[in-house]
UniProtKB/TrEMBL annotation:
Gene Ontology CC entries for this record: cytosol
Protein name: Pectin lyase-like superfamily protein
SUPFAM superfamilies xrefs: Pectin lyase-like
UniProt gene name: F9D16.290
Pfam families: Glyco_hydro_28, Pect-lyase_RHGA_epim
Gene Ontology biological process terms from the UniProt entry: carbohydrate metabolic process
Signal sequence annotation: 1-20
Length: 444
């Protein structure tokens, strides 16, 4: 299979120019080596029944216990055959591959009453939604290394509806579970899996490094609350490529902790590449924030195709966050139908409690957005910095945002400085400094 795709790749090289090849085939997915697992087991060996009714928690826990304790050289692959495997939440272990066959579904039970609770993240100080602990992710990994979740596009189904309804009726006791979280983990690959109906965020790598997420599909209804697609959080060396995401909240949102807790924990997100993502959402396509207290730097997002969006590109932070957002490069974005093309805001999101420091102002500098094409965009852009900490080095180049008739508005800016080149509609005066072309081109 691998050989085959390599030869197809070489074959296609003969027909495309090297520059377009560089654009379309660049990849960071090699940062985690793909290991072959000689040892293979199936969930059915542990009593797993894929009839959609049997609860398979014991089978999953027993299979993973076996992987953890037998420690087979090169790790173990856990095979999930076609069928619907209902289960409660479970923990993964190191050196394993969770492999979902075509037609395999791992489906969460809807028993919110007995769902396990875990400690809040230190960089948030409490659950993201409610004070106190938080419900464990459906599939959870803590302190792991060398874990792969892959297969032939089987499905991990959170059956989130009951959780969304609790959120809507304000009957949640704690913060809803993510579909998948990896915490303090490294060398993680997630590929060729469909994620659907997460109770809360879909994929949440936090305090992780060397994470590759590619060829995934993430689906949740447009009105499902907080079903973010992928949220790299206080993590570095993360590669997200070639995926389709359509959910009720941000498609990809980079975060790094919340106000005084995030500042004290001090763990940035850095060296993150997001490439060839397609999707749709009432919120943002590519988002940074709003929890940015550990700092966010060295981010590249390119070849992003969006439709029916709230905001195409959204960088968001707040007073009390501290930290920084710097060296962000976003290019080659196509947006069809959005409320806002580009939005950079210093007043977004809430606070964990009243003890945030109002003098902890975030620093936002070196944001370069290039080559954005939008059609049917209601508001071109809004860049609203903070009075005590203006956004600097905001560079826009080759941006064309076309509005629908009558509703079209132009750029709105305050407390911001930077440059622009070939931006239409004509950008706000704050971004019309001369020498723009030099400043922009030096970093792209
Ligand atoms: C940053 O990530 C890229 C892959 O996207 C990797 O090749 C590079 O080594 C990483 N840089 C550092 C400093 O780790
Ligand atoms: C799963 O991991 C969590 C967090 O590390 C831990 O609190 C919990 O006890 C684990 N559950 C099981 C069944 O091992
Ligand atoms: C799985 O879906 C992804 C994303 O749509 C696609 O790129 C990939 O080719 C599919 N893989 C298989 C094995 O069908």
């Amino acid at each position: 299979m691998w050989r085959l795709s390599v030869s197809i790749f070489l074959f296609s090289c003969l027909f495309v120019s090297s520059s377009s090849l560089g654009d379309s085939e660049a990849t960071c997915s090699g940062i985690v080596p793909l290991r072959y697992r000689y040892d293979k087991i199936s969930i059915t060996d542990f009593g797993g029944v894929g009839d959609g009714r049997t609860v398979n928690t014991k089978a999953f826990r027993a299979a993973i216990y076996r992987i953890q304790h037998l420690k087979r050289r090169g790790g173990t692959l856990l095979y999930i055959p076609p069928g619907v495997y209902l289960t409660e939440s479970f923990n993964l272990t190191s050196h394993m591959t969770l492999y979902l066959a075509k037609g395999a579904v791992i489906r969460a039970v809807q028993d919110t009453w007995n769902w396990p609770l875990i400690d809040p993240l230190p960089s948030y100080g409490r659950g993201r939604e409610l004070p106190g602990g938080r419900y464990m992710s459906f599939i959870h990994g803590d302190g792991l290394r060398d874990v792969v979740i892959t297969g032939q596009n089987g499905t991990i189904d959170g059956q989130g509806e009951v959780w969304w309804n609790m959120w809507r009726s304000r009957t949640l006791k704690y913060t809803r579970p993510n579909l998948i979280e990896f915490k303090d983990s490294k060398e993680i690959i997630i590929s060729n899996v469909i994620f659907q109906n997460s109770p809360f965020w879909n994929i949440h790598p936090v305090y992780c490094s060397n994470v590759v997420i590619h060829h995934v599909t993430i689906l949740a209804p447009q009105d499902s609350p907080n079903t973010d697609g992928i949220d790299p959080d206080s993590s570095y060396n993360v590669c997200i490529e070639d995926s389709y995401i359509s959910t009720g909240d941000d498609l990809v949102a980079i975060k790094s902790g919340w106000d005084q807790y995030g500042i004290a924990y001090g763990r940035p997100s850095s060296n993150i590449t997001i490439r060839r993502i397609t999707g749709s959402s009432p919120f943002a396509g590519i988002a940074i924030g709003s929890e940015t207290s550990g700092g966010i730097k060295n981010i590249i997002a390119e070849h992003i195709t969006l439709s029916n969006m709230g905001v195409g590109v959204n960088i968001k932070t707040n007073i009390g966050r501290g930290g920084y957002i710097k060296n962000i490069k976003i290019s080659d974005v196509y947006v069809d139908t959005a409320k806002y093309g580009i939005k950079i805001a210093g007043d977004t999101g809430d606070h964990p409690d009243e003890n945030y420091n109002p003098n902890a102002l975030p620093v936002v500098k070196g944001i370069h957005i290039k080559n954005v094409w939008g059609v049917n965009v209601r508001n071109a852009g809004s860049i609203q910095g903070l009075k005590g900490s203006p956004f600097t080095g905001i560079c826009l180049s080759e941006i064309n945002l076309h509005g629908s008739l009558n509703s079209y508005k132009t750029w709105k800016c305050s407390d911001v400085s930077g440059t622009s080149l070939k931006v239409s509609p004509w950008p706000c005066s704050e971004l019309r400094t001369t020498g723009g072309s030099n400043l922009c081109s030096s970093t792209f």
